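Supplementary Data S3. Sequence and structure tokens for construct A.
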Amino acid sequence: MFAAWELGIGTCWVNYFSNSKLDKAFGFPDNLKSVLIMPMGYPAVDSDPIPMHFCCKALEETVRFI
């Protein structure tokens, strides 16, 4: 993603999809499994991330130390 950004290409990490359907659609053999997809493209000059992009939960809300 960083390398793409250095070239002016925007990306988006996507992991909310059916891995098995994607694997079938792309004809992946059984020994390969998709983990995520990353659409890439040139962002519009006036584009900005959505406001929630900059919001983070407190570490204590997302991590449990055991």
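Construct B, processed identically:
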Amino acid sequence: MAKVCQLTGKRPMTGYHVSHSHKKTKRRFLPNLQKKRFYIPETDQWVTLKVSTSAMRTINKVGIYRYLKRLIKQGVDIGFQLKDA
């Protein structure tokens, strides 16, 4: 499975391990992804998403329905069909 957030699109980045002597070796920075089940009361629908923790914070702040509507308006493919209320 890809390590990509379904909502924000965050994906792994590359960088270096830097030792004390500044010898650099390649490494990957992985996003903090969690598999989470959300309930959307406006549509009476449960959805399971693989989201980053920063997306979870935004969902807690704005609400899942408003956040998904905003993403759909921006043209982001959220991976499922949102039923209209």
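The beta strands are 13-18, 24-29, 33-40, 45-52. The longest strand covers residues 33-40.
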